[in-house]
Amino acid sequence: MLHQRQPTTPWINPITGWRDDFQQAVEMAKTAESVTRSGVLYYTHTMAILHGVLRPAETIIHEMTEILSTAEQTGEDVAIGLAKSNVAFALLHRGSDSRAYALELLAQVRDIAMRDRYSRTAIPMVDTFVAQDRALQGDLDGAIELSRAAVEEEIDGGGVIFVPMATSVLVEALLQRGTHRDGQEAQSAIDRMSAVEIEPGLVLYDIWLLRMRALLAQARGDDPVYRHYRDLYRKMAAELGFEGHMAWAEAMD
What is the pLDDT of residues 140-157, one digit of tens each? Predict the structure, then answer.
């Protein structure tokens, strides 16, 4: 039987000042070349946005867009891949009318990664968000097939940090399609994610698991269990100050 990870209470010993650290890193990189500027934004704000830690601020999107313009002028593939990823992921999480543009940027990132001119770790990440878009467009079969493959690639390749996002897209698509077998597969996907070995204190797994367990209970019509996990999810998001998860949790009935 797979181990069921239980969230730790309290969730973490908070490290204060990380938001200031992010801003300081961005300020320090302003005079650097495009690869450094894009990389700093990617490993601070973009990663935080992807994991529901931050919401994309307009000032950051503006800076990402400006850096993308500079990176395109250099023609350097790593700078372009990072810069396009920054803009695309921020726009997708802002929920703007720029979704088509963001997905086109990700398609371009995937293309240079497929040609080994950018990190191939980007491929399952891009596929995860393409799958999410397919689900939004009503192509649940396509969304499930693509997100299932992305989860497999992430777990088999040891890409621990992106497993929660990919699993969440798969689980939500399965629950939206809603057959009995889909429910079983959703449970198996959650169990598999719960069994992934991670470093102690990596709360990203805990918070995504609470969300997915709440959604699964809701799909099963188990209201007491749903409310239990939903309330834990809201509490954890609020105590950690994870802006994206706070918004997603509040949107749950």
Answer: 999 999 999 999 999 988
Q: Which two tokens stand for residue 112?
A: 């240079």
| Residue type, position 120, single letter | R
Q: Do 173 and 143 meet the contact criterion of CB atoms below 8 Å apart? A: yes
Rounded CA separation 19/23 (Å): 6
Per-residue pLDDT tens digits for 68-87: 999 999 989 999 999 999 99
Q: What is the pLDDT of residue 15?
A: 66
| Helix segments in 137-222, DSSP class H | 140-156, 163-177, 180-194, 203-219
Residue 189 contacts residue 163 (beta carbons within 8 Å): no
CA atoms 178, 180, 181, 187: torsion sign:
positive
Instruction: Yes or no: say if 223 and 238 are a contact pair by the CB < 8 Å rule.
Output: no
Mind giving me the DSSP string for 66-117?
Answer: HHHHHHHHHT-HHHHHHHHHHHHHHHHHHT-TTHHHHHHHHHHHHHHHHTTS
Contact 211, 245 (CB under 8 A): yes
